Task: inverse folding
């Protein structure tokens, strides 16, 4: 049984991610924890002054969120009729990232699936600060679903790497599960930026050949300004359905969220992004 956390603010993109999850895991036994996170800062001072005491306000907000989640669950049960899926509602009144981390620990979550707004850039503004923080600090895999992205199978999956460290199947376990269950073909993309030495390009090829079937390899030589266009070109030309990467220092992931400013991004987010935590 897989335990999946589905954060929602009831926006279109968060609901779209939930529907994607229903279809992606339709044949697997899953517990879905649907969580809505409220925070005190979302209520302006005037609202607090006009309301009942804080404890009553808290109860009111939490109860309203619970009602909304229950309605959502009822809709999912009606729409999908999937006996393999169980739903549990969660409401927290906390910092977003803290609430996510607490839910992961308490409920032994295997995967977080979040929605994000579709846009012409991978930036903190585009992803949303909450999504970026979860991606950067989560100890479990995170799957980000772009707005309006619908599940259409996972025939082709790409994994980006710089081959700067040895991998192991513990950190790639979910990627392996996805590929096996969906009979996916795996492409390993080695991104080489300017001034990088690609001499270690093939050091992990034996590892991937040993643990994955139908693996192909592609080296993308590019510069900082064109990195996202280059990867997007490969994704589009090869009809890639999901792109995965490891969250580790001095990697493509770090350059994606740390080293670049928003104005340098030209990468159109139109397929799911799976971020796997690095296991030291």
Result:
């Amino acid at each position: 049984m897989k335990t999946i956390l589905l954060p929602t603010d009831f926006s279109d993109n968060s609901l779209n991610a939930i529907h994607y999850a229903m279809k992606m895991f339709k044949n697997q036994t899953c517990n879905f924890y649907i969580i809505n996170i409220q925070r005190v800062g979302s209520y302006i001072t005037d609202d607090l002054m006009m309301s009942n005491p804080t404890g009553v306000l808290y109860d009111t907000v939490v109860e309203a969120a619970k009602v909304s989640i229950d309605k959502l669950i009822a809709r999912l049960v009606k729409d999908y009729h999937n006996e393999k899926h169980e739903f549990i509602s969660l409401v927290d009144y906390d910092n977003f990232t803290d609430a996510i981390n607490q839910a992961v620990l308490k409920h032994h979550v295997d995967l977080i699936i979040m929605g994000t707004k579709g846009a012409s850039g991978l930036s903190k503004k585009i992803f949303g600060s909450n999504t970026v923080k979860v991606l950067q600090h989560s100890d479990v895999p995170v799957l980000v679903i772009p707005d309006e992205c619908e599940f259409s199978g996972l025939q082709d999956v790409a994994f980006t790497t710089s081959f700067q460290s040895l991998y192991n199947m513990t950190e790639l376990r979910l990627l392996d599960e996805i590929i096996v269950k969906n009979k996916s073909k795996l492409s390993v993309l080695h991104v080489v930026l300017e001034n990088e030495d690609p001499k270690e390009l093939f050091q992990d090829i034996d590892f991937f050949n040993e643990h994955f079937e139908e693996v192909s390899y592609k080296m993308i030589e590019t510069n900082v300004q064109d990195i996202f266009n280059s990867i997007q070109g490969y994704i589009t030309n090869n009809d890639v359905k999901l792109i995965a990467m490891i969250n580790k220092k001095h990697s493509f992931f770090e350059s994606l969220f740390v080293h670049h400013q928003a104005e340098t991004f030209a990468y159109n987010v139109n397929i799911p992004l799976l971020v796997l935590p690095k296991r030291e």
About this structure: The longest helix spans residues 54-80.
